[in-house]
């Protein structure tokens, strides 16, 4: 017996304002906690004459420091170093995390690895590299392009504003700034751009399959967000495509 295929609504992810606010609240506390941790580590580090930075930083080509690519972002060389990193880290970290903390944690791991490995492979002169600036550049790159991959209008606009406001950051992701690990910055930026693609919202635009009434395979169909005879159906569709619904 034949029958009409079932209509199923495409899941475009959480759009409930309360859920968005809840995610933003979690992102705020995650970043607040992260900053609290690196400031506590800095307090212990400075009291020990920065022995932690010497012992757990990344040194190019040194196999013993390879695992330290995960500890180096928590360490700094001075109070001025951590102060200059804290503001951008919180802002870009919050913007990267407010659409999902779990995805943000995966992004942070990816950026720490790409930044640390870039330093480990290419930095010269046995320099001991620490600092959260690789994460900052990773979050920056992620925030700038995330909206494009997710096809989300609000995130795209945020990315444009961040790119226009903080484009000067890219000047320290190229060679020439003394005492700055431009390789760590570049590696972090690459990790952020890669993360925007790897952690993109794959549910957007996907078409679910629904079985037909016959014995054959399924039929793919996107259900309208409102009734076919509703004058708001086209408006709902356009707003959904823009990421506003």
UniProtKB/TrEMBL annotation:
Gene3D superfamilies the record matches: Rhomboid-like
Region (Disordered): 208-233
Keywords, comma-separated and alphabetical: Hydrolase, Membrane, Protease, Transmembrane, Transmembrane helix
SUPFAM superfamilies to which the protein is assigned, alphabetical: Rhomboid-like
One GO CC annotation: membrane
Compartments (UniProt record): Membrane
GO terms of biological process kind: proteolysis
InterPro entries cross-referenced by the UniProt entry: Peptidase_S54_rhomboid_dom, Rhomboid-like_sf, Rhomboid_protease_S54
Any one GO molecular function term: serine-type endopeptidase activity
Topology in the lipid bilayer: Multi-pass membrane protein
PANTHER family: RHOMBOID PROTEASE (PTHR43731), SLR1461 PROTEIN (PTHR43731:SF9)
Descriptive protein name: Rhomboid family intramembrane serine protease
Organism: Streptomyces fagopyri
């Amino acid at each position: 017996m034949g029958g009409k295929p079932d209509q199923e609504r495409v899941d475009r992810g959480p759009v409930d304002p309360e859920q968005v606010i809840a995610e933003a609240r979690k992102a705020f506390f995650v970043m607040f906690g992260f900053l609290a941790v690196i400031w506590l580590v800095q307090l212990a580090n400075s009291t020990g004459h920065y022995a932690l930075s010497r012992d757990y930083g990344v040194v190019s080509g040194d196999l013993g420091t390879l695992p330290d690519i995960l500890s180096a972002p928590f360490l700094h060389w001075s109070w001025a170093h951590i102060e200059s990193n804290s503001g951008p880290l919180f802002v870009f970290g919050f913007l990267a995390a407010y659409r999902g903390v779990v995805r943000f944690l995966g992004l942070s791991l990816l950026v720490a690895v790409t930044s640390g490995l870039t330093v480990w492979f290419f930095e010269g002169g046995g320099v001991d590299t620490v600092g959260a600036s690789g994460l900052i550049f990773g979050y920056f790159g992620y925030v700038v392009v995330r909206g494009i991959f997710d096809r989300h209008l609000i995130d795209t606009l945020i990315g444009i504003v961040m790119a226009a406001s903080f484009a000067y950051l890219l000047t320290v992701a190229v060679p020439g700034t003394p005492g700055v690990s431009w390789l760590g910055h570049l590696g972090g930026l690459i990790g952020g751009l890669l993360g925007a693609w790897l952690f993109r919202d794959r549910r957007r635009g996907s078409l679910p399959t629904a079985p037909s009434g016959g014995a054959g395979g399924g039929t793919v169909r996107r259900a309208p967000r409102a009734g076919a005879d509703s004058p708001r159906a086209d408006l709902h569709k356009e707003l959904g495509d823009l990421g506003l619904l």
